[in-house]
Design a protein that fits this description.
With 85 residues, the protein is mostly helical. It contains three helices and no strands.
């Protein structure tokens, strides 16, 4: 009897709302873009140093994008989906 009543009261709602998922997708896109910008810059010959690995895009821009993406993810998780706005 208790099992039946519990099943009736649970509607099967999602934990997060539509707005939460939108922010999560935006955050994942920022993280992915940051990791894409971080990649590359290697050298074909291991005896030759390529200073391209220390350019501004890989040292400053890409990690900043990844951190912004993680911040957006935290915001998306903490966002109240039941708020009226």
């Amino acid at each position: 009897m208790g099992e039946q009543k519990r099943k009736e009261t649970s509607k099967g709602d999602f934990i997060f709302g539509k707005k939460n998922y939108k922010f999560m997708i935006i955050g994942l896109a920022c993280i992915a873009l940051g990791f894409i910008l971080m990649s590359g810059g290697g050298s074909d010959d291991p005896n030759v140093f390529n200073p391209e690995i220390f350019n501004w895009r890989r040292i400053r821009l890409a990690p900043t994008l990844v951190l912004i993406g993680f911040g957006i993810q935290v915001y998306a998780i903490l966002l109240n989906p039941n708020k009226g706005s």
